[in-house]
Amino acid sequence: MTFDPRSVAGKTLDIASRTEVLVVGAGPAGLAAAKQAIDGGATVMLVDENPVAFETMGESVPQLWGGLMGGQIRNRNAMTERMLEARPELADLFETGVDIRLGTACWGLFVNHANLNWMPGSIAGLADADGGSQLIGFDQAIVATGRRDMGLAFHGWDQPGVGGISAAATLATLYAALEGKAAVVLGTTPETLLSVIDLVKAGVTIKAIVEQGDHPFADATLVARIEALGIPILTGETVRGAGFDTNGIHGIRLRDTEIACDSILLGLGAVPVIDLLQAAGVRTIFDGSRGGFVPVLGDSGSTTLANVRAAGDCAGIWGTKSADERVSRREGRIAADAALGALGKDVGSDQEPTMATIPDAALDIGYYRKQWVRTVLETLRDDVPVCQCEDVWAREILEVHPPRYLNAAAWVEPKSLTQLLGEGPPNPDQVKRLTRAGMGHCQGRRCREQVQAMLALQENLELGAVSLAVYRSPVRPLSLQDLSPAHEDPAMAEQWDSWFGMPRQWTPYWEIEKRYTVASLARETDHVTE
């Protein structure tokens, strides 16, 4: 059989190693899944990107670190030791034979399906802090990538000292490297208040918790725990800006008062980290009772890809689950049992019941996030970036302006979203392509949910009616050197230009059409050689 030399047919990939069960994330769900899988007789690889490289943290990846990191975070060995002390199960799993990869990000999962059917099995892309990237083969994957926080634009939010409360809690409890000591918190979700309790235990002073609504979003029992700590909850308030100078944040300006602080922590809603799942092709839906966009799941944590499962916060977030890590651990064990069964292994008599965990009574997280964005949107000036990486303002997003560096104001008429996007709900991907909002180094982690909420407000839609901008691999920012394979199939290297839709390198310039189209790419021509 003869293959088209410019197709992937007949090409080979350099697979560094293989494992039966790949677990991504070493939180409660990932640790429980890895133990269940190794106890069931499978070969297991456990990957966790912590400790995250300082340079990556500077881009607010994978969480909204916001410059809250102390200098000690640069000492990678010390941070690894801190992580092992905080999660002693890692050492136990290593002793039982789990292949543990710390400081290693999984930047992509690739599974053969209808539109991708040439690979030698399922493959994961891994990259470590030393700049190495490799492909790993797996039979079953359990994704337990956790959560991050939603961003919120206001004057000064791009200054060091404004970050996510989950990121702050990670720095304080996992790394003991949180720079801020006196914080004001925005938001009162259950996850936010639980993080506040953790931060207080770590020695952080919480000056106040700000809530735009008339009452806290969390239940009364959790609110009572906060009040017992003497922390004021200011309801009916919202942020108007941050006070800052060359030394960083020194206060926050609210609607009715100002408070001195050295950090501002965003707790408007924990976001399930679904980037790896969605980029792999897993179907996702908006479920307000599970924290926003989450994967479509079966009872065993199964997704719409047969050999990919989800557990922990990336599978859904709600108050009871956040307060008790046993819920996430149970999800991890259930997913591991299902993976063992798919591998034809005996899961034993102590198999977890395969039933979905029921979230709390539904909280309208969509309405809550929209209200927070609404309270600050009216005050955003044209010098406040919603997308920090690309410096895109709120008005430019809502009026769909092209990037300022194109100097397009003279030849582009202002248009409404409806005019540009046509019938139906606005699509953040279209807005991203036209304005560049969400196309920066942080890969939309600071602005993705904000843009979604702004479009929903503009068109008077429920939050779930507007999709998120899609994720694509690599879901972590990588250099081209990191992505380049150590060994490349010569047949693939010979045809590299066609993979990017580029004109053939040695095609005479007089044979290249003035308007280069996809149709012209499909035509073979004679090529000039050296």
Give the count of helical stretches: 19
| CATH topology grouping of one domain | FAD/NAD(P)-binding domain
CATH architecture of one domain: 3-Layer(bba) Sandwich
Measured as a percent range, the helix fraction is 25-40%
Q: Give the N-terminus to C-terminus distance in angstroms.
A: 30 Å
- The shape is globular
Q: CATH homologous superfamily name of one domain?
A: FAD/NAD(P)-binding domain
**What's the alpha carbon Rg, rounded to whole Å?**
24 Å
Task: Give me the secondary-structure category.
Answer: alpha/beta
Number of strands: 21
Residue share in β-strands: 15-25%
Low-confidence stretches: none
Q: In CATH's first tier, which class of one domain applies?
A: Alpha Beta
Q: Main β-sheet: number of strands, strand sense, barrel status? A: 7 strands, mixed
For the residues shown, what is the average pLDDT? 88
Task: Describe this entry's structure for a reader.
- This protein has 530 residues and is α/β, with parallel strands linked by helices.
- Among the domains are: 15-147 and 271-342, FAD/NAD(P)-binding domain (3-Layer(bba) Sandwich); 381-468, Orthogonal Bundle (Arc Repressor Mutant, subunit A); 480-521, no CATH class.
- It is built from 19 helices and 21 strands.
- It has helices spanning 28-39, 54-57, 76-86, 89-95, 165-175, 190-201, 220-228, 275-280, 319-323, 325-342, 365-377, 394-398, 417-421, 428-435, 448-458, 480-483, 490-494, 496-499, 518-521, and strands spanning 15-24, 44-48, 99-102, 104-110, 122-128, 133-143, 147-149, 162-164, 182-186, 205-211, 233-235, 239-245, 248-254, 258-260, 263-266, 270-272, 284-287, 292-295, 308-310, 385-387, 392-393.
- The model has no long low-confidence stretch (mean pLDDT 88).
